[in-house]
Amino acid sequence: MKVFKFGGASLETIERIQQVGKIIEANASGKLLVVISAMGKTTNELEKVAQNYFMRKREIAAQLLFNIEQQHIQVAQSLLGDREHPLFTQLQQFFTEAEWTLGEKPLRSYDYYYDQLVGLGELLSTAIVSAYFNQVGITNTWVDVRDVFRTDDNFRDANINWEITELQVNQKVLPLFNTANIVIAQGFIGSTDQNESVTLGREGSDFSAAVFANLLNAESQTIWKDVTGLKNADPKLFPDTIDIPEIAYNEVIEMAYYGAQVIHPKTIKPLQNKQIPLYVKCFLDMSLPGTVIRQDVDDRKLPPIIVLKKNQVLISITSRDFSFITEDKISEIYEIFHDKKIKINLTQNGAITFSCAIDNNPEKIELLIKALHGGYRINYNEGLELLTIRHYQNGLIDKLTKNRNVLLEQRSANTIQMVIK
């Protein structure tokens, strides 16, 4: 058993969908579970539907949804040719579900409606790809992952109920391999015990594949991307990046924690727990070796790993009575951040000041300031960046911070982090 995951970039054009078919066909001799994301920028477009609906701009939301429907019907027709194919009825059912949501008044949280609408993209893409593959002889079975992945109701960042999900994988997914070697499922989505759709966090399709790999005791998981493998930095931000042929689970967890966008932060742990290797390969050229992520890789062979998080805010919190920031106050501050669902990217505290870097989310920052206002004074700087270097070298630090102001710095034996302006 192997698990493959294909992201939206691999489905952006008809030619790329056909290329995905070639990759699957080349690996179809064994059992293969394939997790597929929404096509291209569909998730972004569905987010606009959710935003307009929640702002009670229903006509705009309905028009945006109609545009998405037409785009997907056009792709399906280009691939299948036959408008009488049962796929088109299935697509219509998905859009009818979304239209029912748009017909309601938004009485619940935005996150709830986000999940009812935005997860549509994965259902559409997988249904189209599955039907096309069956038509060209790549026999497969399609499964609605909402019938498999049971979660809590933490909308937009739902947590898997592993016990129930494992039971449903055994009952509903494993038997499908008795009739076909290939099963196609969605990433990113699941459902509560009330059958309400949820999403697992942005870029959660990697994690979905890891959940399947863990519960199916897969031989390996492969994430197919439009890059040649992992690099030591984002090539869009830094010149002269270096390929990383192999890297340990723990190192990738560190990279993800510090903000690297290549692998979803939650993806690694389910694989590490069962020692399942994770391959990152290029769907544009399947012959390239890519990167393997596994246990026991010597980190002394790694180049410096650079992660840059943009759009950061540095917040400084001081008690109104200028008393020391002791354990009780730190505990209170952390509790407020937790309550507002704000992730702290870097912290540092002095005698009377607690400082931290967070992502710039104006709505959440406003709520945070209101919650802290009673006992604390707050100052903050916007428009900052958080630079993290693993396995750093002094010359590299000087190069990357030249002509920049370092507002906060933390350094350990392996890692340096700086908030820079």
From TrEMBL:
Gene3D superfamilies reported for this sequence: Acetylglutamate kinase-like, Aspartokinase, catalytic domain
Keyword Transit peptide applies: no
SUPFAM superfamilies reported in the protein's UniProt record: ACT-like, Carbamate kinase-like
Known catalytic reactions: L-aspartate + ATP = 4-phospho-L-aspartate + ADP
Pfam families: AA_kinase (PF00696)
Keyword field: Amino-acid biosynthesis, ATP-binding, Kinase, Nucleotide-binding, Transferase
InterPro entries found in the cross-reference section: AceGlu_kinase-like_sf (IPR036393), ACT-like_dom_sf (IPR045865), Asp/Glu/Uridylate_kinase (IPR001048), Asp_kin_monofn (IPR005260), Asp_kinase (IPR001341), AsparK_Bifunc_asparK/hSer_DH (IPR042199)
Domain Aspartate/glutamate/uridylate kinase: 2-281
Superkingdom of origin organism: Bacteria
Enzyme Commission identifier(s): 2.7.2.4
Family recorded in the similarity comment: Belongs to the aspartokinase family.
Protein's UniProt name: Aspartokinase
Organism: Chitinophaga caseinilytica
